[in-house]
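Review this:
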Amino acid sequence: MRIYAHRGNSSVYPENTMAAFQSALSVGAEGIETDVHLSKDGILVITHDEEISRVSDGKGQVKDMTLEELRKYDFGSWKGEAYKGEKIPTLKELLDLIRDTDLMLNIEIKMGFVLYPGLEEKLVEMIRSEGFLHRVIFSSFNHYSLALIKQLEPEAKTAPLYECGLFQPHEYAKTLGASFIHPSYTSMDPRLLEDLRKNGIGVNLWTVNDVQTAHYFNTLGIDGIITDYPEELVKALRRP
């Protein structure tokens, strides 16, 4: 079972910053989950919310600011003075960080409250040109976005995110051409696993933050879990 660091090592470091991603590498995470938006000047940038005030000393929407404008703000101090000066990363910077590793990257496409025309095209182009197609899972709560990703790149691995029960998820995943499903762990019914496996559909769960729950899903043979506590779960599940 692969352990994905949710927005990097976000329990300790400011989420979705290079410090959080570097820490995820250091503690032994086998994957990173992150979120992608599009800046005003068409740059793929990493942050969770459409609006930056929760995680920075600025305010406003990502879509209304250029990368240069976004980088005027501090994306670290909200987590503590030790992280003062962290800047919003670009997707390219994260790809460069993990390039020489074997980490998988789960990119959540943020296409909900704000729509970013052309985001999917830019994303596929970058992942393809950077040689990461085999190492990326594209996920989203906007399943139309995932369908477009598959049209643009049939070899892309996609995964619909959902929080409540999904009827016959193996059939729905096949309809989308998805390689995985990404349900909240609370909505994962173990009785669904047989049909998912028969149809070659993997399962990555969010957000698993305690050792007991992680052990349980590990025994079920779940493909991966997304966690805010990668260090603790790596130690617990990889203990000799």
